[in-house]
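Here is one chain, start to finish.
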Amino acid sequence: MTDATLEVRDLTVGYGKTQVLRGVSLRLAGDTRIGLFGPNGHGKTTLLKTISGLLKPWHGEILLNGARIDGAAPRAIVDLGIIHVAQGNVLFPELTVLENLRLGAYCRRARRQLKDNLERVYLLFPRLAERRRQHSKTLSGGERQMLSIGVGLMGAPELMMLDEPTLGLAPKLKDELLEAIGEISKGGVPLVLVEQDIEFLLALTDHLYMINHGAVALDIASGDQLDHEEIMQMYFGKE
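Its structure:
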């Protein structure tokens, strides 16, 4: 179990001259699981890219265990244990399932745990064990998503960020992923989960943030005991 604490403070980010995030602040401590939802194109993916070092903030701070990481290179952030599973199955299509998984453990810290983490991935996703010698381009959409998460786990995450893992998946596959992500969380890995499926988020997270027009529009703690209907009314407005 990890005690990683991530803090985002007054984060402002954009592309070129276009501002996307507008003073976003949030906190994830210990084995907390936070969910991000909101309209498409309003900053959720931009936030994850900034935390993982792919974008540099215009203003604000990102801290891991009290130390600033907003100026660090993506590789250094991975070495610290922040693993970002991007939207859209970013895999090497000509490599096998096993080769993709091994590449996920490229940093020194993860290489020391390669064997144990590979066994963990295969227990979590038995289909990947069955298909370990297939090229990833031959997998179904659901299997590619499993592999993407598996590659992330091979990085020995201290904190894991998942960007819309159920995008485009059938309900049965969503249920399988929900169970698997739940098992990852039970293993003590803090999660930042971006999803449009509110019920999926409610089943997996302790704290919800709605990102709207690049800012935190709603901050919903698990103790607020909001149900799906109430959150949808807050999201879309009452009829």
